[in-house]
Amino acid sequence: MDLSLVLHSGDPILQSVFALLVLMSVVSWVVIIARSRLLWVMKRHQQGFMSSFWEASDWQEALNLAAKHQAPAAKLARAGAESLRHYRAHEGGGLGKAVSLDDYLVRNLRTKLSQETAKMERGLTWLATTGSVAPFIGLFGTVWGIYHALVGIATTGSASLSTVAAPIGEALVATAAGLAVAIPAVIAYNAFIRTNRRFAQELDGFTHDLHAQLLTEGGHGVR
User: Fold this and answer.
1) H/E/C letters for each residue in 61-98?
2) Model pTM?
3) Rounded to whole angstroms, how far apart are CA atoms 136 and 49?
4) Which of the listed residues 53, 179, 190, 199 has the most CB atoms within 10 Å of its CB?
5) How large is the average pLDDT for residues 65-84?
């Protein structure tokens, strides 16, 4: 059945259902493409940076390398180095007496780690919402089409094919449209969640190693 014919023959409510599903589909695919590209770029930069960072000859060379990268691990390294510098600058004052270097680094690194992992989750709420809501929107269109079919039967007093074909056809197309919008969103959501989990685990491991290195640079030894 031609979708354009369904849209032209449907009433404003059914047209609104299809328009909403099309809008949700477009936004979902924009999110999917954008997130896929972002994760691919982040993964490539992350792998290159982490291997080069730990191969640096000294701490200063590692910091210079981190300053040139935009990988999440590089941002963590810069945040850790800045935390160490800030602590050293205030070590003789209230800051140094109020909290140990270990606790100060842990707090700052955890904050930065949470910020970086949160960036990876942008757009996932929309995909989850689309995957959950789109089938019900399509179902609403289905119910509305069946309602029109029953109204047509009551008005004409006939249950002939010509009376119910158009409303039932619109109902079936609405169901298919809802599923067509929801299925890619659910698949992409699950794929992104799995990728983000692996990425977060890598960042968490890097953060622990970085914390130990910062303690060494701070003269407190490796914990």
Assistant:
1) HHHHHHHHCCCHHHHHHHHHHHHHHHHHHCCCCHHHHH
2) 0.78
3) 45
4) 53
5) 89
